[in-house]
Specification:
The complex is a heterodimer of chains A (194) and B (167). By secondary structure, chain A is mainly α. Chain A has a domain of 132 residues. Chain A contains ten helices and no strands. The longest helix of chain A is centred in the N-terminal third of the chain and has 25 residues. With 167 residues, chain B is an all-alpha fold. In chain B, 32% of the residues lie in helices and 0% in strands. The chains are: A mainly alpha (194), B mainly alpha (167). Chains A and B meet through helix 9 of A and loops of B.
Chain lengths: 194, 167
C-alpha cells in the first residue's frame, strides 16, 4: 500500500530535471512510436500468413478458398482473409479484433481443433459472417466490387437480371445471393433461399 | 544359361554357334522392322497421329458456355444441358446450389425453369413434396455446354428424321 502511495507521489510531483517542452515532445514521439507499433502489430494479424498460421484455418477454410475465383483467376487480383473478414474502418476493425480475441481463447481450449469439431460449429460460424455482412450491406465485398462501376452489359445474363433488379433496388445484398463463394457451405437446411 | 549349355553337347554348340548368332540377329532385325512398320502405318485413334512413345499436344480446354441459351434436345428424354457455368456450385449433403434456383418455390424469384415434375417421383411412381433422393445429384444427368468439336463423327438420327424417312 505504502509503495503505491510513494509512486503516486512521484507521479504528482512536477518535473525537476526535465523541461516541459522535452516532456511534451518526448510524450508525443513515444505516442507515435506506440501507435505505429500497435497498428503494425494489427497489420500483422491481417496477413494471410497469420490467419492461416493455425491448422484450424489452414486445413479447413484456406484449403477450400484455394479452389475459388478469389484465390486464382485470369486477372491475378485476389482477396485474402482480411479483405472479406476485417472491416477497413478503424472502430469496426478494433471491435472485430476484440471479438477475435475470444476466438484465440477458443483456439487455446481446442473448441474446433479437429475437422469434425470444425464442421460441427461451421453453421454457427458461417451464420455469424452472414449476419455481419447482411447488417453492413456486404461492405467488405463492396470494397472491391463497386456496384456503381459494374458494367452490367458485360455480365452474364443471369447476373445482369439479378443485379439490375434485386441488387440495384437495394432489396438484397451480395451475401443474400452469394453465400459460399469462398468456402464450403455448412448444412443449409432452413437458410433462406436454400 | 548354365542349363542351356548343359542341354547341348558342347561340341555341337561350337559348330552351330555361328548359325545361332545369325538366327538371333535375323529375329531381332525382323521384330525391329515390324515395329517401325507399325509406326509408319497409321491407325487412327483418339490420341491423334502421335507415336506411342511421344506425348501428344493436348487440345485447348474448351470454354464453358455461359450465355443462357438453351440447346435443342437430341432426343425426347434427353436431360437438358446446362446453359451456364456451374463452377464451385456445391451439390452435396449440405447444400444443393442448383435447387436454390430451380426448386419449385425458388423459380419465381430466380426465373429459372423449375425442375421437371418427374423429379418429384420416387421409383414406385409416387409423387413427393420435394425432389426424390434419386434425382438429388443434378450433375449425374445434366452437364454444362462446351464449345468444342466432337472427336468422332456422330451419326445419331433424330426421331423426326427417321419418321420422315419412313413416310
Amino acid at each position: 500500500m505504502s509503495t503505491i502511495k510513494k509512486y503516486l507521489k512521484v507521479l504528482k510531483r512536477p518535473s525537476v530535471h526535465y523541461s516541459l517542452g522535452f516532456l511534451t515532445l518526448g510524450g508525443f514521439i513515444a505516442g507515435i512510436i506506440f501507435w505505429g507499433a500497435f497498428n503494425t502489430a494489427l497489420e500483422v494479424t491481417n496477413t494471410e500468413e497469420f490467419c492461416t498460421g493455425c491448422h484450424e484455418m489452414r486445413d479447413n477454410v484456406f484449403e477450400e478458398l484455394k479452389t475459388t475465383i478469389h484465390y486464382t483467376n485470369r486477372s491475378g487480383v485476389r482477396a485474402t482473409c482480411s479483405d472479406c473478414h476485417v472491416p477497413h474502418n478503424w472502430t469496426d476493425k478494433i471491435a472485430r479484433k476484440m471479438q477475435a480475441s475470444k476466438e484465440v481463447w477458443a483456439k487455446i481450449f481446442g473448441t474446433i481443433d479437429t475437422r469434425e469439431k470444425f464442421l460441427e460449429h461451421r453453421r454457427q460460424l458461417a451464420g455469424n459472417e452472414w449476419r455481419r455482412l447482411k447488417a453492413n450491406d456486404s461492405l467488405e465485398c463492396r470494397n472491391c466490387h463497386n456496384f456503381e462501376f459494374m458494367d452490367l452489359t458485360r455480365q452474364s445474363k443471369r447476373a445482369m437480371d439479378q443485379h439490375s433488379t434485386a441488387l440495384a433496388s437495394g432489396e438484397k445484398t451480395c451475401i443474400d445471393c452469394h453465400k459460399g463463394i469462398a468456402h464450403h457451405l455448412p448444412d443449409m437446411k432452413g437458410v433462406e433461399g436454400w | 544359361m548354365f542349363n542351356l549349355v548343359n542341354m547341348f553337347n558342347i561340341r555341337l554348340l561350337k559348330k552351330s554357334l555361328p548359325a545361332l548368332v545369325a538366327s538371333v540377329a535375323l529375329l531381332t532385325s525382323v521384330s525391329f522392322a515390324s515395329l517401325t512398320y507399325a509406326g509408319q502405318e497409321y491407325i487412327s485413334t483418339l490420341r491423334g497421329e502421335v507415336h506411342l512413345n511421344k506425348e501428344p499436344q493436348a487440345p485447348a480446354i474448351a470454354k464453358v458456355e455461359n450465355t443462357d441459351e438453351k440447346r435443342q434436345r437430341a432426343y425426347p428424354m434427353q436431360p437438358p444441358t446446362i446453359p451456364h457455368k456451374v463452377d464451385n456450385y456445391p451439390v452435396n449433403k449440405n447444400a444443393n446450389k442448383c435447387m436454390s434456383c430451380h426448386a419449385r418455390d425458388r423459380a419465381e424469384e430466380s426465373q429459372a425453369p423449375m425442375v421437371s415434375v418427374t423429379h418429384f417421383m420416387n421409383r414406385d411412381g409416387n409423387f413427393l413434396a420435394e425432389i426424390s433422393p434419386r434425382r438429388y445429384f443434378c450433375n449425374q444427368c445434366h452437364v454444362v455446354q462446351l464449345d468444342s468439336k466432337p472427336l468422332v463423327e456422330n451419326e445419331f438420327q433424330d426421331v423426326y428424321n427417321i419418321i420422315g424417312e419412313k413416310k
